[in-house]
């Protein structure tokens, strides 16, 4: 009897009071809600894809919302107008002269990635002599490796991860001004010199219309809104900053980036695209912030392996691995006019799928780099290391 009373008292002693249980439940629900809210990009992408499947006439070319104008020009212009409002012009000019940043991003995008992709394609060709993997897909991957970085999402992701938005914006502009002139010739040069790739090596398409359309889009949707935003900021700097902070206007640019996505479902290349993007991001991180031991190797090594700032590192990590459908698809169809439509469609699959998946993976890297950025600043405040990656890779 005494033992029973003791057990009862012991049980009551460990019972959680209803009020405390309710508080704990609220915390769990709040944490779950916040986590789901932070995945708005992936959820939004899924919703947009479902809506596009059931209502294809709404956002198609010439559809209800005239996406060739409202999205390609309107939504993009809004993103870069907000960037123009947010970024001090001194910072833009500073990064225009930042040659180290230009070399890191542009050489990585136009030289390192095509080299890696060419090596992978040759490995596949050696291991697949019977052509079970469609050669149009391989040609498409080489083409994808040679196109420039994407426009809107790089700026949006860099901003979200507390990176240097001005650095991302400058690199995006430079890459997409160089891209139309570099990509076509570089793709034909890099393609394997074998009979199975002959249809793509003999591209004779007229690129004049493509050049005109690409530079028209860059001018109207990127440069003009950016200049207008800078003029507004220069005219009313204090008022502009108050409005941006009060109404959280930069978030609007992030939401509009959803509208530029393409959706394609090719399961067997999904894992490769994700692994490739993660690998390229890791390489970008370490070329931006090389390990300390490299700078002590020989005379002059400290200057060669000099680390850039955490904010610029984040911009490099988003701009380096990314590729653009805005230039890629028009250029692909302009380059290979003699190739039949079905083959061109298969060639475009890597472009569409990689550029879609990079948004998903980059969304998770936003949280990773936010955490890393905070840890770097916490260490610098206490006089510690300036942030070799901790828990990033």
Automatic annotation (TrEMBL):
Pfam families reported for this sequence: SBF_like
Example of a GO cellular component annotation carried by this entry: plasma membrane
Family annotation (Gene3D superfamilies): 1.20.1530.20
Transmembrane segments: 33-55, 70-87, 99-125, 137-156, 168-191, 255-288, 351-370
Keywords: Membrane, Transmembrane, Transmembrane helix
Superkingdom of origin organism: Eukaryota
InterPro entries attached to this UniProt entry: Na+/solute_symporter_sf, Put_Na-Bile_cotransptr
Protein name: Uncharacterized protein
Species: Aspergillus tanneri
Lineage, opening ranks: Eukaryota, Fungi, Dikarya, Ascomycota, Pezizomycotina
């Amino acid at each position: 009897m005494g033992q029973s009373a003791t057990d009862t008292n012991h049980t009551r002693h460990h019972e959680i009071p209803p009020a405390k249980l309710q508080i704990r439940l609220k915390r769990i629900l709040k944490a779950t809600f916040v986590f789901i809210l932070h995945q708005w990009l992936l959820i939004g992408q899924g919703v947009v894809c479902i809506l596009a499947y059931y209502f294809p006439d709404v956002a198609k070319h010439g559809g209800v919302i005239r996406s060739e104008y409202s999205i390609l020009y309107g939504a993009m212009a809004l993103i870069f107008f907000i960037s123009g409002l947010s970024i001090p012009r001194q910072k833009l000019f500073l990064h225009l002269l930042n040659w180290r940043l230009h070399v890191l991003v542009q050489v990585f995008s136009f030289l390192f990635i095509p080299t890696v992709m060419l090596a992978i394609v040759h490995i596949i060709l050696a291991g697949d002599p019977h052509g079970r993997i469609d050669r149009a897909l391989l040609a498409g991957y080489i083409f994808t490796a040679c196109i420039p970085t994407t426009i809107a999402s790089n700026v949006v992701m860099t901003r979200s991860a507390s990176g240097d938005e001005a650095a991302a914006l400058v690199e995006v502009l430079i890459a997409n001004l160089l891209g139309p002139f570099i990509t076509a010739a570089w793709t034909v040069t890099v393609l394997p010199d074998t009979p199975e790739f002959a249809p793509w090596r003999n591209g004779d398409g007229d690129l004049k219309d493509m050049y005109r359309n690409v530079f028209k889009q860059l001018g109207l949707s990127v440069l003009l809104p950016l200049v207008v935003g800078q003029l507004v900021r220069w005219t009313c700097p204090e008022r502009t900053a108050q409005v941006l902070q009060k109404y959280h206007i930069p978030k609007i640019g992030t939401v509009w980036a959803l509208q530029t996505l393409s959706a394609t479902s090719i399961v067997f290349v999904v894992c490769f695209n994700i692994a490739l993007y993660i690998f390229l991001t890791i390489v970008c991180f370490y070329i931006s912030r090389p390990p300390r031991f490299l700078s002590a190797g020989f005379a002059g090594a400290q200057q060669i392996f000099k680390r850039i700032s955490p904010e610029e590192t984040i911009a490099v990590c988003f701009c380096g691995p990314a590729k653009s459908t805005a230039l890629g698809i028009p250029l692909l169809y302009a380059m290979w006019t003699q190739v039949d439509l079905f083959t061109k469609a298969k060639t475009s699959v890597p472009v569409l799928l990689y550029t879609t998946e990079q948004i998903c993976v980059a969304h998770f890297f936003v949280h990773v780099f936010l955490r890393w950025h905070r840890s770097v600043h916490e260490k610098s405040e206490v006089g510690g290391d300036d942030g070799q990656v901790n828990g990033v890779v």
